[in-house]
């Protein structure tokens, strides 16, 4: 495997990690707000908070890791994407900032359950994936013009593009679906049957628009005679595997059995789709200006980064395992027996 | 090149950084202080210090949240506002940036664990151990990001041939001449600032009439630590001056209004610059030569050796004065405090002295800000000294002004939010109440 493939694979894996943990986070915020409006928050709030509190900071780092890594391995992305994305990325950043900091403000100041605030928090969580997914649309090509000043984003074309909106729809429904299934399982583990049942219902509801919007994206890609679509066809078996995994997950939920397995299948479902999407995008990072090969950093830096990455993983993997052991998989913690917060 | 985009990008970066470093400094220094308090508590079996660690940790969560999110903003803004610079930096010095995220990851993970496992371990020492990676991670991430900044001041580890970068040596780029003094100065001033900020709070409580032993213990511990860190700051500050004289003489010359290269150079304190004339300044003979080369008769390079378009703005002199004066003042205040404790002088319990201690926290923050402005404005017009000007590094996008407005509103909200939250948190749960609660549980 060449270094650039290794680099992009590493980054793609981290991005996938972010997509999963952030989806749980964003979706949880939305469901929390929704339950507050419908008066069901006494069922959900506790479980959601137990999960989110120790991990919200870690979620953020996945994102930082991705954008630092991509500038390191592919410095030219800084030039192209940095210039084009000023507005959409800034908007996403502002939302992330408000969300991240206010989570801490609210949780630790002892003022919980403010309705307007929870609603803003929940909605911000849905706008973030929407604004971040714009990058996926842009990378398909056709929204960036080059002139002597540098690359410019065509906002008009982007905002009127059906492809852009179908990707937005897919990202938002995916967030809600992933989050709902995870929380179904998590609540059941915590012994909170009511919360688990409610989340199961939400998961079943959001599975349907998810699959519709997934088809929507495929149809949009096809109708624009897209270079990417052709390559996706070659990998269609992976998308089919993903579809089968979706059906299996959905069936487990329907049958109210083995939620742990459902979460695993869910992760594999998104992993196959995510990696099939990524592989079919090869070799372009931004069609047609930027490929994985011509934007790759010099070899010395690449090798040093890979070494640093491996060293970093040696620290990271045991630490994350520790978090899981202490919080996510700790019966005492998730069921709220020991209240040992600072 | 887009002139207005360059200008607004600089302003936005300045606003973001100036805001971020307040919280970032707390993020670097406070974990060390929590660790020390926790350790003292365990060692002396004194519940007050444990409570100190606990209360500081609680407040720390809020500041760390703002630090994390604004740090994320800063990280992405580097690429959004300075895409051309980042393209070059990505090839040259992605390594420290990359390592910084690992340090940050490490810190985030263990901070989460530390915060959520109070009273969960039978052995308190185990819990203390969790704080070591937090403190190390915080200082390491400060170190790595400062290395990146040091590289911008003293680029090396590559050759530029016809605009192409060759012979890249990432480690040589990291261990550049600016790195040791910069990293040391950043770390030690962060520790110092945090000690004085927390000391301000203790002094405030005492001035407002609380006579609780908890606040007295806190104040004594913090002033002691603050004194040590300030001594270290002064020493490292002197090294920084010598570094500048050697490698970046134009920055030192602009900060000192040293226009002509000369021997026996005097140090210019205060004063104003009026049409190139220095007025109302105090000149201390030979001191600049001592500062630069430890020799009162040594020659110090002046701004005359540099073309005018490469001069940093002369107003950095004021930043230098403010930073140094505050440093000296804090050294003096903490020394007097310790001396008074030793000699049992009672004036340190007077209102006016406590008021001075209260000022120490905000003053140290001002010193941090002016120090960074001095360092950053002092390397203008370069973003990579000698290689790339700031204007060449900036974005060409036309929307930077709008982003400046949005982000300024955001920082305002964050500042208000964090202050209100912190205030409410400690007002609703004063120390007396917390001690009472814990003793009723049988912990004290």
From TrEMBL, chain A:
Q: How the protein sits in the membrane?
A: Multi-pass membrane protein
Q: What class of enzyme is it?
A: oxidoreductase
Compartment list: Cell membrane
Which segments of the protein form a coiled coil according to its record? Answer: none
The Gene Ontology terms for molecular function here are:
oxidoreductase activity
EC annotation from Swiss-Prot or TrEMBL: 1.10.3.-
For this UniProt entry, what is the primary localization, expressed as one broad class?
Answer: membrane
> Keywords of this protein's UniProt record, alphabetized?
Cell membrane, Membrane, Oxidoreductase, Transmembrane, Transmembrane helix
Where do the TM regions start and end?
Answer: 12-34, 55-74, 80-105, 117-138, 163-183, 203-223, 235-253, 260-280, 300-324
Please name the InterPro entries in this protein's record: Cyt-d_oxidase_su2
What family, per the record? Belongs to the cytochrome ubiquinol oxidase subunit 2 family.
Q: What is the recorded name of this protein?
A: Cytochrome d ubiquinol oxidase subunit II
Q: What is the lineage of its organism?
A: Bacteria, Bacillati, Bacillota, Bacilli, Bacillales
From TrEMBL, chain B:
Where would you find the membrane-spanning parts of this chain? 20-40, 60-81, 93-116, 128-152, 183-206, 218-237, 315-340, 352-375, 402-422
At the top level, the lineage of the source is: Bacteria
Record's keyword terms, sorted:
Cell membrane, Electron transport, Heme, Iron, Membrane, Metal-binding, Transmembrane, Transmembrane helix, Transport
Q: Where in the cell is it found?
A: Cell membrane
**Broad class of where this protein is predominantly found:** membrane
Question: Which Pfam families does UniProt cross-reference here?
Answer: Cyt_bd_oxida_I
Specify the protein's topology with respect to the membrane: Multi-pass membrane protein
Q: What InterPro entries does the annotation carry?
A: Cyt-d_ubiquinol_oxidase_su_1
Its family?
Belongs to the cytochrome ubiquinol oxidase subunit 1 family.
* UniProt name for this protein: Cytochrome ubiquinol oxidase subunit I
């Amino acid at each position: 495997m060449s270094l650039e493939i290794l680099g992009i694979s590493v980054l793609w894996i981290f991005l996938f990690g972010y997509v999963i943990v952030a989806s749980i986070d964003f979706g949880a915020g939305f469901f929390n707000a929704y339950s507050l409006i419908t008066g069901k928050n006494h069922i959900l709030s506790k479980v959601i908070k137990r999960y989110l509190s120790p991990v919200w900071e870690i979620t953020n780092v996945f994102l930082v890791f991705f954008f630092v890594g991509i500038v390191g391995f592919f410095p030219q992305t800084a030039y192209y994407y940095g210039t084009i994305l000023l507005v959409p990325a800034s908007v996403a950043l502002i939302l992330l900032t408000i969300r991240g900091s206010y989570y801490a403000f609210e949780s630790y100041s002892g003022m919980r359950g403010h309705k307007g605030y929870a609603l803003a928090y929940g909605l911000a969580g849905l706008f973030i994936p929407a604004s971040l997914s714009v990058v996926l649309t842009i990378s398909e090509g056709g929204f960036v013009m080059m002139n002597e000043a540098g690359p410019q984003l065509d906002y008009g074309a982007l905002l009127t593009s059906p492809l852009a909106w179908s990707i937005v729809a897919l990202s938002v429904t995916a967030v809600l679906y992933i989050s709902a299934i995870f929380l179904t399982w998590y609540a059941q583990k915590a012994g909170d049957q009511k919360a688990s049942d409610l989340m199961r219902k939400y998961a079943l509801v959001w599975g349907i628009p998810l699959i519709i919007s997934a088809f929507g994206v495929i149809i949009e890609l096809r109708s624009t005679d897209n270079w990417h679509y052709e390559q996706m066809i070659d990998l269609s078996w992976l998308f089919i595997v993903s579809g089968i995994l979706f059906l299996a997950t959905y069936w487990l939920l329907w049958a109210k059995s083995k939620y742990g397995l459902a979460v695993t299948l869910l992760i594999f479902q998104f992993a196959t789709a995510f990696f099939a999407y990524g592989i079919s995008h090869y070799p372009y990072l931004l069609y047609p200006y930027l490929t994985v090969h011509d934007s790759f950093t010099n070899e010395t830096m690449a090798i040093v980064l890979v070494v640093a990455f491996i060293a970093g993983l040696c620290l990271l993997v045991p630490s994350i395992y520790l978090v899981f052991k202490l919080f996510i998989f700790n019966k005492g913690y998730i069921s709220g027996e020991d209240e040992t917060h600072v | 090149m887009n002139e207005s985009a360059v200008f607004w990008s600089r302003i936005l970066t300045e606003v973001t950084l100036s805001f971020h470093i307040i919280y970032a400094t707390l993020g670097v220094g406070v974990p060390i202080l929590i660790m020390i308090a926790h350790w003292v508590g365990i060692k002396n079996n004194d519940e007050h210090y444990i409570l100190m660690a606990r209360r500081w940790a609680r407040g720390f969560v809020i500041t760390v949240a703002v630090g994390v999110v604004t740090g994320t903003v800063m990280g992405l803004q580097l690429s959004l506002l300075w895409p051309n610079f980042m393209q070059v930096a990505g090839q040259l010095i992605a390594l420290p940036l990359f390592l910084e995220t690992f340090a940050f990851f490490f810190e985030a993970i263990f901070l989460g664990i530390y915060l959520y496992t109070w009273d969960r371990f039978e052995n308190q020492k185990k819990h203390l151990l969790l704080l070591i990676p937090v403190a190390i991670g915080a200082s390491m991430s400060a170190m790595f990001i400062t290395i990146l900044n040091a590289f911008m001041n003293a680029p090396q580890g590559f050759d530029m041939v016809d605009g192409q970068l060759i012979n890249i040596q990432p480690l040589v780029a990291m261990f550049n001449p600016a790195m040791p003094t910069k990293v040391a100065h950043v770390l030690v001033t962060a520790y110092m600032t945090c000690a004085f900020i927390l000391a301000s709070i203790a002094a405030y409580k005492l001035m407002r009439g609380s006579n609780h032993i908890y606040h007295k213990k806190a104040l004594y511990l913090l002033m002691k630590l603050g004194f040590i860190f300030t001594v270290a700051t002064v020493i490292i500050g002197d090294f920084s001056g010598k570094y500048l004289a050697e490698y970046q003489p134009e920055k030192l010359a602009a900060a000192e209004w040293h226009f002509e290269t000369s021997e026996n150079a005097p140090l210019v304190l205060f004063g104003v610059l009026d049409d190139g004339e220095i007025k109302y300044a105090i000149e201390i003979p030979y001191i600049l030569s001592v500062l630069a080369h430890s020799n009162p008769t040594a020659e110090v390079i002046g701004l005359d050796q540099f073309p005018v378009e490469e001069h940093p703005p002369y107003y950095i002199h004021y930043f230098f004065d403010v930073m140094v004066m505050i440093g000296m003042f804090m050294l003096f205040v903490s020394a007097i405090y310790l001396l008074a404790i030793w000699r049992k002088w009672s004036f340190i319990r007077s209102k006016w002295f406590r008021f001075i201690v209260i000022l120490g926290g905000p003053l140290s923050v001002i010193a941090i800000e002016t120090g960074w402005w001095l360092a950053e404005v002092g390397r203008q017009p370069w973003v990579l000294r000698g290689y790339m000007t700031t204007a060449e590094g900036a974005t060409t996008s036309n929307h930077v002004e709008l982003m400046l407005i949005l982000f300024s509103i955001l920082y305002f909200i964050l500042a208000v939010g964090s202050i209100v939250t912190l205030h409410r948190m400690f007002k609703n749960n004063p120390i007396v109440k917390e001690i009472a609660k814990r003793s009723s549980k049988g912990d004290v």
